[in-house]
Amino acid sequence: MSEMKQERPWWKESVVYQIYPRSFMDGNGDGVGDLPGILSKLDYLKDLGIDVIWICPVYRSPNDDNGYDISDYCAIQEEFGTMEQFDELLQEAHRRGIRIIMDLVINHTSDEHPWFIESRSSKTSPKRDYYIWRTGRGDAEPNNWESIFGGSAWEYDDRTDEYYMHLFSVKQPDLNWDHPEVRTKLYEMINWWLDKGIDGFRVDAITHIKKLALLPDLPNPEKKRYVASWDGHRNREGILDYLRELYRETFAKYDIMTVGEANGVSIAQAEDYVGRHGVFNMIFQFEHMTIDHGPGGKWDYRADWKLSELKAILSAWQKGLEGRGWNALFLENHDVPRSVSRFADDGRYRIESAKMLATLFMLMQGTPYIYQGQEIGMTNVKFESEEQYRDVEIKNYFGEAGANGLEPQKALEAVYRQGRDNARTPMQWNDGLYAGFSSHEPWIQVNPNYPHIHVAGQLEDPGSILNYYKRLIRLRKDRSVCIDGSYDLLLPEDERVYAYTRTSSEEVLLVLCSFSQEPCKVQLPEHLLAVPAAELLLCNYDGDAEPLTAEGAVLRPYEARIYSIRS
Ligand code: NOJ
After folding, report:
1. Global pTM?
2. Is the distance from CB of 149 to CB of 174 less than 8 angstroms?
3. Number of domain units in the chain
4. Helix, strand or coil for residue 548?
5. What CATH number does residue 234 fall under?
6. 408-426 residue pLDDT tens
7. Is the domain of 71 the same as that of 118?
8. Residue whose CA is closest, atom 2 of ligand 1?
9. What does the alpha-carbon distance between residue 33 and residue 94 come to, in Å, rounded to a whole number?
10. Annotation says 204 is catalytic
11. 209 lines ligand 1 (CB under 6 A)
12. Which candidate in 202, 231, 239, 243 could, as Cys together with 210 as Cys, close a disulfide (CB 3.0–4.6 Å)?
């Protein structure tokens, strides 16, 4: 590879599209999305202009956490199809020039994985130490850690009178990465998939694999029953040894892309993860995903989050990794609310808002990830009753909220804001039965707004969000400044407009994004306004935009503009 090529590996120029297979497209009419469904939409994705698909887990799984609980890494979940269908999908994607990355879930398995079944069978099982077992303290759990999905991070097993650790659901026991055989077995499995010809991995929950030595109780000043346990297992000392070994034994041998789900990694530490000698090509950081969390965590909605905070977080990552690493850019995924409902306006200005948010994140430095439905401006959903929800985390929350005496309506409202099922309702393909997702009642209800938010309508409408995404993707591809240009934030204190530039030796891009429902004036620095030839490349309103003048610009509600300034 030439030096130039190394500077610009394919994954830096790629746009990724994330598929949540259960909710994307049902090919066999059983109400659950599947591999044939994805196959049938490859041309749609090609037309959108994306380069890579990340498919959330499709491995065999009892489905406690929708596939993130794997019982066989080398088999396909029956509901999703067969390994032959997977191979066909891979081949057909490649034929269209689309790469596929898989979700790699190696912090935990399902409790129905043969390793765990063997491990739990007796204290002397050769697989006992594949997982983390401890005796309790009297009637209490081995320590006070809380599971990320609520409740204790330990589950008692009366067969051997010990507890096993599960940072996520009780059906997701944590693997013991300190055991060399576990690591070897995982590497074999990873190489098996890479030898098949997939193009990389999104690596799930990877910062949790190394637990704090001796698993101590965490400080508990508020005398809670269980304590949020991040400090016990997130990015703990020693993790890099395991990650580097993982890299050496697997990823390093292939021309692939990898993105680590790296909760808890700071900018200062990011170089270890994504720098020149890093383990991943990029990582997902989640600081901007907690901006509306109150002191009580994700269910404690904080309405007064500020645009200046969002700017500060995103800009710190942009500048922090510039020339040192690479960002993964995203506003949505299957674990968080829909961005248009969360950050902008999903009512009157939904269309403008969705386009504005697309402009904001897709032009930063890094590889953009579009989550299914984001490209048509899908919104959060408000189901009327608890029974309509499917997510294990939401169900646990309802259980705990009830036990703590929270009114059911209040719990529902928290879920309307932050629940993961907001992003998991079926993809809205058309205004027909079940939004064209399936011919059978889907596993989770379709968002009732599908008659006016769907792909078919937007394909035909030149002014649609979908067509705006296509233009934006093309613009990124046509201008190398989008990949290489440095990022600079303008107007850091402005609470209504997010403005930034991307600068290369040839061109400056100026990106203006209004987060206001009212028209608002933006005063730009003189050096940008002094250039007479600012060419408007894209705007989320039809027709002419008001020109940039020495006085600045007046942006319409949720307006976004991209200018090119060539010196
Ligand atoms: C992160 C995944 O994105 C989420 O959906 C899952 O529940 C947890 N990891 C556990 O695997």
Report:
1. 0.98
2. no
3. 3
4. coil
5. 3.20.20.80
6. 999 999 999 999 999 999 9
7. no
8. 204
9. 21
10. yes
11. no
12. 239
